[in-house]
Structures are given as structure tokens and as C-alpha cells.
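Protein modeling request. Please complete all fields; requests missing the sequence field cannot be processed.
Requester role: graduate student
Desired output: 3D structure, C-alpha cell encoding
Chains: 1
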Amino acid sequence: MRKLLMILMFSIFALGNEFAIKPHHVDVKLKCTDCHKEANEKDYKALDSNACLTCHGTKEKLAKRLDFLKGKNPHNSIHDNANLNCYTCHNEHKPSFNMCNTCHNTKTWMKEIK
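Delivered output (114 residues):
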């Protein structure tokens, strides 16, 4: 039920703003300029993983946080090690995508991707 409520809240929030940010980033009062460094909003460009890692640390640090998943760690998988681009699964202005779920049933060991 909580998951459904979160999806509904995000959907309503996103409908009102094409570039709405995820609720967990709203919670920490993230502003557009915290990620986008261009002076004018109309000049904003798509970001790469380095923008994410500015706040989230290194890919190795993120992988270590999920070490308890052993061989199922999406941040250090047997397919990509710790080299996957953040945006392969995580998206800020649109729903995220669980790439692992395209081949594996991740419902028993992975939370919803934010």
C-alpha cells in the first residue's frame, strides 16, 4: 500500500512539472542548480553519472553499500562490475527502470528503484 501511495504521489507531482525531481531529492531540498551548472535554465543539458557521484560518492562506495546482496548486487554485478552508468536504471525526471528485471525476477531481493 505504501509503495502504491508513493507512486501516486510522485505521479501527481510529476504531472504538474515536466522536470519534477524524485521525492527523496525534494526531501533534501535539492535545487536544479545543485546538478545543472549552466547559467540559464534553457541551457540545461542531460547529466552523466559524474553529476550523481558528486553527492553519492564513488561507484565503489555505492557498490559496497549493497555488498550484502552478494552476487546480486546491481551496483557491482557480474555483468558490469561497478561500471554501469547511473542513468541506465535511475532517472531523475521520469520513472526509473530496473534493468536487472528484464532478465531476472528481482522482486524477492531488490527494492523498487528510485
